[in-house]
Design brief:
461 residues; alpha+beta; Immunoglobulin-like; 2 domains; four-stranded antiparallel beta sheet; 19% strand; elongated
Length: 461
């Protein structure tokens, strides 16, 4: 069967106009949005010992996080951090569903800000719908232009802040004012700004529905005791509109008045009364608006609420729900999470801010020098991960009479590395022909940090 000419197999996505609503979860969402965005935009401006407090200096391969200076060799810390974040996601999803999506996901946070700007310039939900249907005129132009101006300005500032985590933000600001911005810096600033503008301004719920993989595999982390946004169908059905003075029991009605406000406030446009859907991000806007309707009707709150599948089936109380939250699955997640956090903290506390790489000089193997002594040359890379100039003493051990023919005192600037050649000599009768294990001890003369590296010393045949 052929497709009729001009027909399409895909339905165009309808624009969603989220309705503004207040309530306890809305207040929590606003606090989370302001806090997270405040941290994102403020942290790059924090100073720390005459430098930026948080800076990922990719060209220099140094990552500053307040008092910490990390190098590429510190990758295990990043691996531990990613494991902590992964198990946090598993743990909180098993307990509270998509709490991350509803209150802390960058897509949700930036979308909230863009919706606030849209409401500020274009008005309420009904006003925005009416404005989009109206013909172009001065009123529509000024409102649309104001919204776009705020969106574009905020997006560009977001791109500037993002780049400020990788380039000192004060220098970046001065370069922008002087029109002296490098190509890659300009590209990434505009790219991140454009991504913010597109994702938060236009794509919005489509990112959550079609692009985010979490929406697809979340069901694998849910179980009957996971807290999710639920509609109490036993209490709400049959639904129908009615006067406040009508007794729903006498009229054969449930508590749902079929106002559809739960649909109007949903940022993804779903009807929670149809059951749990993968598009639900757990923002609880429908809970707030339904509670407000129940208050006006004089009915108990909680027709739409956070609950679990098991609790709905068995009529459990809030205390029983909390008691069942600590079940074997979540306890395993929590145990692993706490163990990884402990390992991460211990690793940071015991971390030595001194790193040494030693390789043999390939240009010369073993050579005979004055007095018949045998000399090997090594290439040292000493990395000082502190915020001060450090002086190190180098010692060699492992063979009789082994000694350094180079200066044993090495000074390395703060948060930098230094390459140097180290000459090591032994008497000709110190060992037989072949390779022998020797050790280098590098000690911080002030702080006492110590690193021992093992390598080979070659004796000629």
């Amino acid at each position: 069967m052929s497709k009729p000419q001009g027909a399409t197999l895909y339905e165009a996505a309808e624009k969603i106009y989220p309705r503004e609503i207040g309530g306890r979860f809305d207040r929590l969402s606003r606090i989370a949005t302001i806090t997270l965005l405040g941290l994102f935009y403020a942290v790059p401006w924090l100073p720390w010992d005459e430098r930026q407090a948080v800076l990922f200096d990719l060209p220099a391969r140094k990552f500053y996080i307040f008092a910490l200076t990390l190098w590429p060799q510190d990758f295990p810390y990043l691996a531990l951090l990613l494991m902590i974040l992964a198990y946090c996601l598993f743990f909180f999803t098993a307990i509270g569903g998509r709490l991350w999506c509803g209150f802390a996901c960058p897509q949700t946070v930036w979308t909230e800000i863009f919706i606030w700007m849209e409401q500020f310039t274009e008005g309420t939900r009904s006003q925005r719908m009416k404005l989009d249907k109206a013909p172009w005129g001065w009123n529509k132009f000024r409102r649309k232009f104001s919204k776009q101006f705020l969106w574009v300005t905020f997006s560009l500032w977001t791109g500037f802040t993002f780049v400020g985590y990788f380039t000192p933000i004060r220098e970046l600001g001065a370069d922008i004012i002087a029109f002296n911005v490098g190509g890659w810096t300009l590209f990434w600033g505009l790219f991140y700004g454009f991504a913010t503008y597109g994702n938060a301004g236009y794509m919005r719920e489509q990112v959550c529905t079609y692009m985010c993989p979490y929406a697809r595999f979340q069901s694998a982390m849910f179980d009957p005791d996971t807290l999710v946004i639920t509609y109490d169908a036993d209490r709400g059905e049959p639904r129908g509109s009615r006067s406040r003075r009508i007794d729903p029991g006498a009229a054969g009605l449930g508590h749902c008045v079929d106002c559809a406000l739960c649909v109007h406030v949903c940022p993804t446009g779903i009807d929670i009364r149809d059951g749990l859907q993968y598009q639900c991000i757990g923002c609880a806007a429908c809970v707030d608006v339904c509670d407000s309707v129940m208050d006006r009707m004089g009915y108990p709150r909680g027709l739409i609420r956070y609950s679990t599948e098991y609790a709905l089936l068995h009529g459990l109380s809030s205390r029983d729900i909390v008691r069942r939250a600590l079940r074997p699955r979540t306890l395993v997640y929590l145990s692993i999470l706490l163990a990884i956090i402990a390992a991460f903290v211990v690793a940071l506390v015991l971390r030595t801010p001194l790193k040494v790489d030693i390789i043999r000089d390939r240009a010369s193997l073993a050579r005979i020098v004055e007095d018949g002594r045998i000399e090997n040359v090594y290439r040292f890379q000493i990395m000082n991960a502190t915020e001060r100039v450090a002086r190190y003493t180098v010692r060699a051990e492992g063979l009789p009479g082994i000694a350094l023919a180079s200066n044993p005192i090495v000074a390395v600037p703060a948060a930098q590395s230094r390459m140097l050649a180290v000459r090591v000599q032994v008497p000709p009768d110190a060992a037989g022909p072949g390779s022998h294990v020797v050790s280098f001890e590098i000690v911080d003369t002030e702080q006492g940090h110590r690193v021992v590296e093992h390598t080979k010393f070659l004796m000629p045949r």
